[in-house]
């Protein structure tokens, strides 16, 4: 049978075969199958046993894989932002969007607190760049149906800066989450750098959401060891211009005859997106070659 690992606890992998029943599986032989241990999110072939437990036979090829938390096959990363307090720095959005794009994971931009501020500039920036972009309010419920639609039938993880309303949104989508909602200062004791355990949670709507219990956010602060020259491909709206720069190997930072810079000047690429690219490019250049895989 085919299924998906929703959680892993002490050597057991809880596999959902699609009927909502979780089968506690052990790996066949050792728990490492094909050299790599199973991850939450893995699509697997398993054999149910008579006693209700099961055996994991095979891990199917992964779409992507994250280390912190350790999870595979995230279809989309829902980046929650806000134009009200706290105002989201576009660089934070662009950083996680770039990571998602580099991992074959669809970014969805979701601007919360639209009851307080419509965040017109953020909204237009990400729409124009070609991302699914939504406006919601966890407070009034506006846009939540659209968000439900955007996550239906997919495996999604939510991320966003502290206080933008991730817990509030997840609670509004699924009251049984009962995540703690509060002022930023109430939550500082949680230890941001402790190891995060992750589970996938099937909402009543059928959507699957990555949940890091006790935390509302999916942590993407992984060290990125991406080469600077690969970064351009993680800014999707640059694509039409990349072949048109005067010099091959153009870094699109300040070269003469750069088609990306010309597009920024012409208003076709948002200056904030390009500024984030330059910042990430400079960071990537500082990583010494020997540290890269
Ligand atoms: N006006 C308004 N307030 C909101 C909305 N969503 C959340 N809030 C408030 O914003 C504050 C922070 O919300 P949380 O849901 O705790 O934010 P979070 O992103 O989970 O925060 P962290 O757990 O620190 O990452 C709370 O006081 C919420 O009541 C919204 O749509 N409109
Ligand atoms: Zn260029």
Automatic annotation (TrEMBL):
Segments forming domain CP-type G: 63-218
Binding site for GTP: 112-115, 160-168
Cofactor: Zn(2+)
Ranges for domain EngC GTPase: 72-216
Any coiled-coil regions, as ranges: none
Database matches in InterPro entries: G_CP_dom, NA-bd_OB-fold, P-loop_NTPase, Ribosome_biogen_GTPase_RsgA, RsgA_GTPase_dom, RsgA_N
EC number from the UniProt entry: 3.6.1.-
Cofactor binding annotation: Binds 1 zinc ion per subunit.
A single MF term (Gene Ontology): GTPase activity
Positions annotated to bind Zn(2+): 245, 250, 252, 258
Gene Ontology cellular component terms for the protein in this record: cytoplasm
This protein's UniProt keywords: Cytoplasm, GTP-binding, Hydrolase, Metal-binding, Nucleotide-binding, Ribosome biogenesis, RNA-binding, rRNA-binding, Zinc
Pfam families, sorted: RsgA_GTPase (PF03193), RsgA_N (PF16745)
Domain of life: Bacteria
Presence of keyword Heme: no
Protein purpose: One of several proteins that assist in the late maturation steps of the functional core of the 30S ribosomal subunit. Helps release RbfA from mature subunits. May play a role in the assembly of ribosomal proteins into the subunit. Circularly permuted GTPase that catalyzes slow GTP hydrolysis, GTPase activity is stimulated by the 30S ribosomal subunit.
PANTHER family: SMALL RIBOSOMAL SUBUNIT BIOGENESIS GTPASE RSGA, SMALL RIBOSOMAL SUBUNIT BIOGENESIS GTPASE RSGA 1, MITOCHONDRIAL-RELATED
Record text on subunit structure and interactions: Monomer. Associates with 30S ribosomal subunit, binds 16S rRNA.
Protein name in the entry: Small ribosomal subunit biogenesis GTPase RsgA
Organism (species): Flavonifractor plautii 1_3_50AFAA
Gene name of the encoded protein: rsgA
